Amino acid sequence: MSNAVSTSSFPQRLKEATARLHQELEDLQIPQSILKPGVTREDYLKYMDLMHDVIREVETTVFPLLSSEIEDLEKRHKTKLIELDFMQLGYAKPCCTPVFKNLAMNISTAFALGVLYVIEGSSLGGRVIYKHIHKQLGYDKDSGAAYFSGYGEETGLLWKNFMTTLVTYEKYNANPDEIIAGANYTFQAIKNHFEGGIKP
């Protein structure tokens, strides 16, 4: 019984511990702009440009640290989806901008899982954004919204699989604070990146 309580309580603790920064990120101008009824192509591309920096850097820096922990990690690569969207929309992205200051290759597995918690969680919200963008701009997974289409019908299953891995890792390694630190670091870094992406 005690194991069941422990297993179910950590996701809630993680969610509560990251709630403030998560909400602050969602409340920023650029994330809000792609959910408004009058979203424009420019709003959409500004968001996608910034997210490309985020996803690319996570896949380059963090994914290699988790190759032995996440069995289906190869399915979770999304940089190529954003780049496909850019190609479909005729957008030439400028040079990439660093997002994660001091994110060294020697971060712990727990911290890396916290980073991936944020990235994988965004796939759930992405399904809502996909429907909105399709309705407002007409884009679909083959014409500029492949990134938000993401895992398609597998989105829920892949999230469940990731959370099972995360909870199991925490259970056997007892390092919840480090996972939470990785998640909060990621929310803060993305928030800073998006705030810097607002041009006068």
TrEMBL record:
An example of a Pfam family matching this protein is: Heme_oxygenase
User: Quick one: a GO biological-process term for this protein?
Assistant: heme oxidation
State the Gene3D superfamilies in the record.
Heme oxygenase-like
Source domain of life? Bacteria
Give me the segments passing through the membrane.
Answer: none
Q: Which InterPro entries match?
A: Haem_Oase-like, Haem_Oase-like_multi-hlx
Q: Return the CDD domains for the record.
A: HemeO-bac
A GO MF term: heme oxygenase (decyclizing) activity
Protein name per UniProt: Heme oxygenase
